[in-house]
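Regression check, nicotinamide-adenine-dinucleotide case 350:
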Amino acid sequence: MKQHLIAATHPDRKKDDLILVTGAGGFIGGSLVRYFADQGFTNIRAVDKKPLPIWYQTTPGVKNLCLDLSEQPNCKRAVEGAVEVYNLAADMGGMGFIENFRVECMRSILINTHLIEEAYHAGVDRYFFSSSACAYNTDLQKDPNVRALKESDAYPAMAERGYGWEKLMSEMFCQEYAAERGMKTFIARFHNVYGPNGTWDGGREKAPAALTRKVIEAMDSGDLCIDIWGDGTQTRSFMFIDDCVKGVDLIMHCDDLIATPINLGTSKLVTINDLVSLIEDIAGVKLERHYQLDAPRGVAGRNSDNTFIKSILDWEPDTSLKTGMKKTYKWIKEQYEDRKAGKFTPAGKL
Ligand code: NAD
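Current build output:
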């Protein structure tokens, strides 16, 4: 039987050890902060470059700092006294953002480069980097009926332009800090994360949130049509946020995974059309589909091969898309109503 060590049960961890989470004003970072607070950790530092009023969520008792981590002095300040560092900060978004803002995506390399260096000098015990399935070789993702991507498929390298290359290079930084300097670094390649408290409007939202918003908008306006980017046959797998934060914790506390990139995603492949049908079912509506063939659509297909994570952790993300999307739909609907009522909703700015 494999040992499941999470932070709360790890023998080296004390509840008042300082945990740093970067990108904490965003979707996954904010959710990770809440997860550690729920586990009883009392000394959490949350950092993001966004001003605090526009963070997606904040957790009581956490020290929140507004710092731009692409600048080295700010990284030094952020890591001071930290025992564990979780780097979730990046300039990122859905396909619309990463295809149109490649420079911004690549400049995130400054964040990890400075943060890991300062973490090393500060004597941080464990360091986590949030990589992406976009690091995989795009030549293997030209068919919607893709075979799932296993960790070795990142090489020979032909990552997604901009964003994917930044992830691959930052992964390599983490690997070399482990090889040369003996740092305990951990790297997860996330596959499409969705759930409450994620971006749902404004240009950086990803497919599950964007399509949910469009269904809600169509019902609200009475114009029962939906625009779908591409022809709807693109395939992806989608991981619910609760699985993501648990997976990050499990990976970070597994010494067999030092400097070893690992998939963190579900292995259930669905088409964008399937996803739309699921949201329609949840909403209780049927919409006329308009396919936008010249819109950003990303690779034709992408799935996570979970053989490795199952063999190491005896676990894989397992929240069903239906369960996760029901919660996501409910949350976005509430946000939509709030915004309509004139309330400020940071994850869904107009
Ligand atoms: P997000 O955009 O919601 O959060 C990222 C946060 O990083 C933002 O709040 C942003 O303000 C912050 N940030 C950007 N530049 C910064 C800087 N210079 N200094 C400090 N903070 C900065 O995105 P997310 O979905 O929470 O993604 C978190 C991480 O997971 C990122 O590294 C992302 O690339 C990775 N990832 C996410 C997904 C996904 O499906 N959401 C998939 C693969 C990888």
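Comparison notes: The mean pLDDT is 95. The pocket of nicotinamide-adenine-dinucleotide is lined by residues 22-23, 25-29, 48-50, 68-70, 88-92, 111, 130, 132, 190, 192-193, 199, 206 (CB under 6 Å). No diff flagged against the previous build.
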